Amino acid sequence: MFFAGIVIFRAVLRTLRKAEYAELMILYFIQAVGMAVWFVPLGAILDAHGLAGFKPYAFAFTALASFISPLIFGAMADRHVPPAKVLRGLATATAIMMAAIGFAIQHGVNGWLVLLLILVFSLTYAPMFSISTALVLARLENAQREFGPVRSLATIGWMAGGLLVGLLSLDRSPKTEYLGAAVWLLVAGFTFFLPQLEVPASAEHLSWKQRLGLDALVLLKDPDTRVIFITTALFNIPIAAFYPYAPTNLHSLGMQNTSAWMCLAQVTEIISMFSLGWLLLKWRLKWIITCGLCFGVARFAFSACNDKAGLLIGITLHGASFVLVFITATIYINHRVAAEWRTRAQALLTFMYGGVGNLIGYLWTGWWFHACTTSGVTRWTSYWGLLSVIVVGIGFYFLVAYRQKRVPAV
Questions:
Q1: Other Cβ atoms closer than 10 A to 79
Q2: Is the predicted pLDDT of residue 234 greater than 50, yes or no?
Q3: Which residue ranges form the domains of the chain, and what is each CATH number?
Q4: How far apart are the C-alpha atoms of 181 and 230, rounded to whole Å?
């Protein structure tokens, strides 16, 4: 473990030697802290304040927003306003809305009004990471080799956010939202230090479809690219159960500080991130994603054991599964499209898995949770077991549908 830590630290330092990359890595870090402070404890906070019945809808609203805002703001960042400025405005609005949500929950405001605030919050929150990713990828000299170390700072930031919530004992407190608001204001301030990407000087002759970013749907015409988009969307349906219900399962087994335990996923995520550059050089992309899907099957199968060891192993495997599927897809999409399409391409990827996949996933896994719960007791073996079977089906679809013979050279 000590040796692995030294290897990772040296890889980070090599990337940090480029000052511009340091800025991008810091951006990823603080943005991921804000995402974790919002996302990781949300289910537990809703449970603790009598809003458990609203939980599937609260998470689904983030997915619903991903149908709309990533493509719109992605098109804006490609054609109208420099991405850093778009990110600044979104981060500021997100901070305001997160504080408003915390205030509403803390003062017992009606659950439907809390949901409305979460919907507005989600519209500003949803497009930010895809815009940051497009900005980062545009500045890297060799995305295949360098994206892993840079993106790892987002994973470390996510861990830091989850651990911070746990250490401050805010896992079930709406005061967490105030902490998140402060982080998003920090993100907004940091955008003043980011490099500015050029955008076309005029957008007067754009159609409404181009202004809304819907022209990015043309990317789905390529068969292999379409399979990548569909696979990530399908995989996110079972994955959507992770943050709403894994902490609930941990709590049911008598474990406290659930946000901190959830950070185990980031251990394998970091290891996988630093391995990805080597894997992309040595393995076909098809087998990298297949390996990620296999980790997904194992992740839910271990959780279905419904004991502390099995659940913690499942949580740990989540990170490797996430990287090998979603980060590989991100790098693939960045390479397959022209530079002027990249922000919209990343937005479309967010639309597919963050919108289509998450919306179906949050609603369906919420329904499945209630179907598996009787008199307050959940049949966790049945709950996680079915999700494991679903991932097997997704893996079979990908193996049959994806045809490309080798990873494209970057």
A1: 18
A2: yes
A3: 2-195+207-401 (1.20.1250.20)
A4: 33
